[in-house]
Amino acid sequence: MPHEEPLPFWLVNLPRDQWPSECPDFLRDCSEKDRSIIGTPDAEYTRLSWDECRELIRANRVDKFHRVPSELRRYRQFTHRLVKEYGSILKFIVDERLKWTDMKPRGRPFECEDDIKILYNDWPYGVDEKIVHLVVWTKFPLDEVPGTDALTPEARQGIEDYVQRTFCSRVKPDHVIWFKNWASLKSVHAVEHFHVMLYDPVPDFVKFITNGDAPLASLVS
């Protein structure tokens, strides 16, 4: 049998009738990590289980969270377009998703509801589809130990207390996990945020806590 050359990464997961003649602009500056993921057929990708997510967060290996290959491609295409239209992902997030006109916090961390907004992660990771991935955005800083990605004990306790009273009052505690991305992994740096994952929560609770939000990945083609 003749040897088949592997497809270029930018053609994987695309129907043949949609193949571009060359690598699209939004994929040309991909890191090797993203090229490897995007070049993996979706059929060969295994979503992370809830237990695997919990273990990655416990071990602080949040760098191991990846998007499904075809979703990572869509994410890069979407953010490429955002930068052209808005000038930056940050501006889009603040203007269109958070709709915050004033970034000054009204109170101390977690004191005022107006300083916090809970939304879906617009482009969630490749995890069990029963997992709901949310992002908690804050106008106040979440202090880190200087020179590290580690939260200060005070900031960590503040998040833990907030997660307990906001999520664990309606979701089993062992069905709630949270983490803060390393600085090197953040796609939005200038607005503070951390991530919350819920396993198989009641949809009405998620609708309530996000004020009826929906992830952009489910809305854009």
Write the layout of secondary structure elements.
Elements: H1 32-38, H2 50-58, H3 69-86, H4 89-98, E1 116-120, E2 131-138, H5 153-166, E3 176-179, E4 192-199, H6 203-209
Antiparallel strand pairs: 1-2, 2-4, 3-4
Largest sheet: 4 strands, antiparallel
**How many helix segments?**
6
Task: Provide the structure class.
Answer: alpha+beta
User: Order of SSEs, N→C?
Assistant: HHHHEEHEEH
Averaged pLDDT: 92
Uncertain stretches: none
Q: What percentage of the residues does DSSP assign to strands (E)? A: 5-15%
Q: Span from first to last CA?
A: 38 Å
Q: If you compute it from the alpha carbons, what radius of gyration comes out, rounded to the nearest whole angstrom?
A: 19 Å
Helical coverage, percent range: 25-40%
Strand order of the largest sheet: 1-2-4-3
Protein name: N-acetylglucosamine-induced protein 1
Organism: Westerdykella ornata
GO cellular component, one term: cytoplasm
Pfam families: DUF3605 (PF12239)
